[in-house]
């Protein structure tokens, strides 16, 4: 399959949570391999340092990191905007190496308009006042994703489609819906007060592009979603924003499936080789 890369002026991804079981790293890798962005903004929670476990950081997760460095080596400007799950990087704010820079927030001018970009956890009272509770919630969310993955595997065996349990819970619980609405309103109100045309966030795993208006003016609120459930990103091209959805990208999906089959074959060959060594009583060095 010939890999034709799309040229994109600006791409925003967030909430990848590498190092957790729910991260769809293989699908993200397929997406990154299909684009050639001038600027890539990693808008927080790319590596989940909160739940990082050195026993679980598979090759597919490392491949995402390698692909990002490949884009960097090919001239892509990369901004790493820190989030709450990778807040350890906030002490390195201002670090710059070539085209790579770590920031807590970012302001860009796009075709005569101002964009304000940050992760969004600054608006989360739970994060600010009860971090242990937030971490507990994060582990609960990760467990829910593992259960969801198992549930969807069973569902696929019987020919049924996939279901996102956490999305269903979020969309049905009034307090969660209220939190999302408040988050969007607060971010937009501050953006309007500071004359920003765009306000771009992550954090709440809720992809969105919409105009928000108050008595002082209007702004465009954008959220890049996540790479656990929604598998989304924001793309800016020709003075317009669009919401990229992996599940609607047939080319990237085929590329992802091809890589998964290749990795499965490699694993099977390794298993056969190890069984052969065991049979001949040969130690693997």
Walk me through the topology:
Elements: E1 6-13, H1 25-32, E2 35-43, H2 59-73, E3 77-81, E4 96-97, E5 100-103, E6 105-110, E7 113-118, H3 125-129, H4 131-157, H5 165-172, H6 174-193, E8 198-201, E9 208-214, E10 217-223, E11 232-237, E12 240-245, H7 250-279
Parallel strand pairs: 1-2, 2-3, 3-5, 7-8, 8-10
Antiparallel strand pairs: 1-11, 4-5, 6-7, 9-10, 11-12
Helix pairs in contact: 1-2, 1-7
Write a structural description.
It is a single chain. The protein is α/β, with parallel strands linked by helices and 285 residues long. The chain contains seven helices and twelve strands. The strands form two sheets. The chain has a seven-stranded mixed β-sheet, with no helix packed on it. A five-stranded mixed β-sheet has the order 6-7-8-10-9, with helices on one face. Helix 1 (25-32) crosses helix 7 (250-279). The longest helix is centred in the last third of the chain and has 30 residues, at 250-279. It is globular and about 75 Å long.
């Amino acid at each position: 399959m010939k890999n034709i890369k799309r040229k994109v002026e600006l791409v925003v991804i967030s909430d990848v949570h590498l190092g957790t079981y729910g991260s769809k790293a293989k699908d993200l890798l397929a997406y990154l391999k299909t684009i050639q962005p001038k600027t890539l903004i990693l808008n927080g929670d790319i590596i989940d340092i909160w739940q990082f476990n050195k026993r679980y950081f598979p090759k597919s997760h490392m491949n995402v990191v390698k692909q990002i460095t490949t884009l960097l080596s090919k001239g892509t400007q990369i901004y790493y905007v820190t989030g709450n799950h990778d807040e350890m990087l906030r002490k390195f704010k201002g670090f710059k190496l070539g085209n790579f820079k770590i920031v807590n927030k970012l302001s860009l001018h796009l075709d005569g308009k101002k964009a304000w970009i940050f992760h969004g956890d600054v608006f989360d009272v739970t994060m600010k006042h009860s971090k242990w509770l937030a971490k507990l919630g994060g582990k609960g969310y990760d467990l829910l994703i593992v259960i969801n993955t198992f549930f969807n595997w069973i569902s696929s065996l019987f020919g049924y489609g996939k279901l996102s349990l956490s999305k269903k819970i979020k969309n049905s619980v009034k307090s969660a819906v209220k939190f999302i609405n408040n988050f969007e309103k607060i971010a937009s109100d501050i953006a309007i007060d500071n004359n920003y045309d765009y306000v771009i966030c992550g954090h709440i795993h809720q992809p969105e592009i919409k105009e928000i208006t108050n008595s002082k003016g209007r702004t465009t609120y954008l959220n890049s979603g996540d790479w656990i459930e929604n598998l989304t990103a924001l793309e800016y091209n020709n003075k317009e924003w669009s919401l990229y959805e992996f599940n609607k990208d047939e080319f990237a999906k085929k590329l992802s499936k091809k890589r998964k089959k290749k990795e499965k074959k490699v694993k099977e060959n390794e298993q056969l080789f190890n069984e052969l060594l065991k049979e001949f009583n040969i130690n693997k060095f």
